[in-house]
Amino acid sequence: MCRIIGVFFILWISISSAFASEPDFGKFDGTAVIVDLNTSTKTIYGKHADERVNPCSTFKILNAMIALDSGAVRDENETIVWDGVVREYPFWNHDHTMRSAIGVSTVWFYQELARRIGEKKMAEMVRAAEYGNMDTSKTLTDFWLGGGSLKISPDEQTGFLSKLVRNQLPFSLRSQSAVKDILTLEKKDDYVLAGKTGSCGGIGWFVGFVKHHEHVKVFAFQIRGEGSNGAEAKKIALQYLIKGKL
Fold it and tell me: Which residues are identified as catalytic?
C-alpha cells in the first residue's frame, strides 16, 4: 500500500509541475492554445479557445499564400508602390514587399493583394483552406478586420498553423515555404521562431510556431480587454516561450 501511495504521489508531483506555470496574461482576459505536433498533445489556457472572433492581421498568413498561388504578386520580394496616402504608422508610408509588409503589418499592402486576388478567388481559397467560418462576404478589403465577416477561434488557428507547418494546406509547396520564411522572427542553427500579430476590435493576437531541431509546436495567444493589441499578445507569448515552456 505504501508503495502504491508513493507512486501516486510521484505522479501527482509530475502532473502538478507540468501545469504549475501558466502564461502571465496580467490585466487581460487571455487564452492560449498550444499544440505539440510531435505528440499531438494540446494545452489550453483561458476560456475562449473555441470562440470565433475576427482574425485581424493574422489573416495576412493566408492572404499571402493566396496571393502567391493566384499570381497577385510574382513572389514575396516583389515591390508594390505606396499609393501616397499617409496612414497612422510612418513605417507603412512607403513602398513594400510582402516580406517587409508582413513584418510591420502594413494593412494597405495586404488590402491591395486582396483587390488583385478578387472576391471570387479569395472566397474559393478561404473555403479550400477551411479557415475559421470561411465567410468573406463583407467588403473584400476588410472582411478579416474588426467587425468583418471572417472569424476564427484560437483552436482553429492552431489547426490552420499545423497544416502550414506540415505543408498540408491547398497551396503550392513554394508558397507555403515562402510564407513560413517571411513569418520567421528568429532563426538559429537549432531553433526557429515564427509568428504574426493581429489587432482589431478590442482583440490582440499572436500566432505562430516554434521549432527546436525536429520538435515543433504551434501556438495561438489571444487577449481581450482595455489596451489589448497584437504587440501585448506577442509580449505575453514570448515571455512564456522564453521561460522554456515550449
Answer: 57
